[in-house]
């Protein structure tokens, strides 16, 4: 008895850059669980299992429907024994023991709390935890702790900057930066990047690229913008990092968290009157302004496409672009350039499409990069 031939299902790639992942996540119950475990492993500096859970979460995010049973994960990449065991528990009981245990773990809770402060990374959080500190008041009452400028601002504006930034607020900030850029140079270029470029409704900050068509002119852009924001009285915090970009040292051989372009990490004061529909403020907060985190990066124009691709994210999408380039194409990609190791040459690009084409990848739209 011969049934109909099985319908061929397009295989899901192990690389996020060969999948289309919108903001619609049909497997949130699993991916939230995986992200808790990934973060917990990150706090313990166990990179292997951390990455495994991040990859598994990313694969499930790309699926057009919720996984109904473990059998449905047949043939999916990046799902190992451990991830499948967690999924099975969630399918059966609606939750997984290991995740529950992690969420109620004092160390996890404390490190999560401490790293939620702007300027506090896992290293600092761990150091404070080992000294027996467990709350913000513990930290602020400890005389031997010297907070740096960034952390002081992080605590000062904690309420505001830990609340999500809305799309309308991102748009209002875009107007402010756009005005500054064009007051400086009429042919200045401003582009929204990060999560909002991927179509997210909310973000933890707003990311922009600012540059000029004339090579070299972009280096003065951020300092002038900062000056202007200061005069407007809306600059609450500024960490400016001048460019350390050196063409002769291209490209970096490993994934770097930071590139070498001029950039600044800001906290800006946003007025409610500037935001269509008003501020996303806490209930009972009668202020007509809020503090928001904004990042600006300023690559030279001939690096624009690489910077845009690198700052649009998501992080997992970026990781897999670089991994794909290295493993499948013998190429090195970072936020500055693409290098072909076989041909021993740099591959130029003026658009993101050029970079995908050099890599032999189908173009993935920004809103499909929510891996
Ligand atoms: N980025 C990266 N690796 C890092 C930091 C940043 O690849 N270590 C890139 C990818 C990110 C983008 O920069 O998408 C912006 O960084 P954000 O931390 O602002 O991340 P998102 O904008 O994606 O998310 P959020 O909504 O939390 O701001
Ligand atoms: Mg962002």
User: How many structural domains can be distinguished in the coordinates?
Assistant: 4
Structural class: alpha+beta
In DSSP terms (H or I, runs of 4 or more residues), the helix count works out at 15
Name the CATH superfamily assignment of the largest domain.
Beta Polymerase, domain 2
Rounded mean pLDDT is 95
Q: What CATH architecture of the largest domain would you give? A: 2-Layer Sandwich
Associated small molecules: 2'-deoxycytidine-5'-triphosphate, magnesium ion
**Cα-atom Rg, whole angstroms?**
22 Å
Structure summary, number of beta strands: 10
CATH classification class of the largest domain: Alpha Beta
For this structure, the CATH topology of the largest domain is Beta Polymerase, domain 2
Helix content bin: 40-55%
Gap from first CA to last CA: 42 Å
Describe the largest sheet.
5 strands, mixed
Largest sheet, order of strands side by side? 2-4-7-6-5
**Global geometry:** globular
The topology string of helices and strands comes to: HHHHHHHHHEHEHEEHEEEHHEEEH
Unreliable residue stretches? none
Q: Assess the beta-strand content as a share of residues.
A: 5-15%
Cofactor: Mg(2+)
Subcellular location: Nucleus
Keywords: Magnesium, Metal-binding, Nucleotidyltransferase, Nucleus, Terminal addition, Transferase
GO molecular function: DNA binding; DNA nucleotidylexotransferase activity; DNA-directed DNA polymerase activity; metal ion binding
């Amino acid at each position: 008895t011969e049934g109909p031939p099985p319908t061929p299902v397009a295989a899901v790639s192990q690389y996020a850059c060969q999948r289309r992942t919108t903001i619609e996540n049909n497997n949130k119950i699993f991916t939230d669980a995986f992200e808790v475990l990934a973060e917990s492993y990150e706090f313990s500096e166990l990179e292997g299992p951390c990455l495994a859970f991040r990859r598994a979460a990313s694969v499930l995010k790309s699926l057009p429907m919720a996984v109904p049973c473990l059998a449905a994960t047949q043939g999916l990449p990046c799902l190992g024994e451990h991830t499948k065991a967690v999924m099975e528990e969630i399918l059966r009981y609606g939750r997984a023991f290991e995740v529950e245990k992690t969420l109620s773990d004092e160390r996890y809770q404390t490190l999560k709390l401490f790293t939620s402060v702007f300027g506090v990374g896992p290293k600092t959080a761990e150091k404070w935890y080992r000294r027996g500190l467990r709350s913000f008041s513990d930290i602020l009452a400890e005389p031997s702790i010297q907070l740096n400028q960034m952390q002081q601002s992080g605590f000062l504006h904690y309420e505001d900057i830990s609340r999500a930034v809305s799309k309308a607020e991102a748009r209002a900030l875009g107007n402010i930066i756009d005005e500054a850029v064009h007051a400086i140079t009429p042919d200045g270029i401003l582009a929204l990047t990060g999560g909002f470029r991927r179509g997210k409704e909310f973000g933890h900050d707003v990311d922009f690229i600012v540059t000029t068509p004339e090579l070299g002119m972009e280096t003065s852009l951020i300092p002038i913008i900062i000056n202007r924001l200061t005069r407007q009285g809306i600059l609450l915090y500024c960490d400016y990092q001048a460019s350390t970009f050196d063409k002769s040292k291209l490209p970096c051989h490993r994934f770097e968290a930071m590139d070498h372009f001029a950039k600044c990490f800001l906290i800006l004061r946003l007025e409610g009157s500037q935001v269509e529909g008003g501020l996303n403020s806490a209930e009972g907060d009668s202020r007509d302004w809020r503090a928001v985190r904004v990042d600006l990066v300023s690559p030279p124009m001939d690096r624009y496409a690489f910077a845009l691709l690198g700052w649009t994210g998501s992080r997992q999408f970026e990781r897999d672009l670089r991994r794909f380039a290295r493993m499948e194409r013998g190429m090195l990609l970072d936020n500055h350039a693409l290098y072909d190791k076989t041909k021993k040459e740099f591959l130029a690009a003026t658009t993101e499409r050029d970079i995908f084409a050099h890599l032999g990848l189908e173009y993935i739209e920004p809103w499909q990069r929510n891996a």
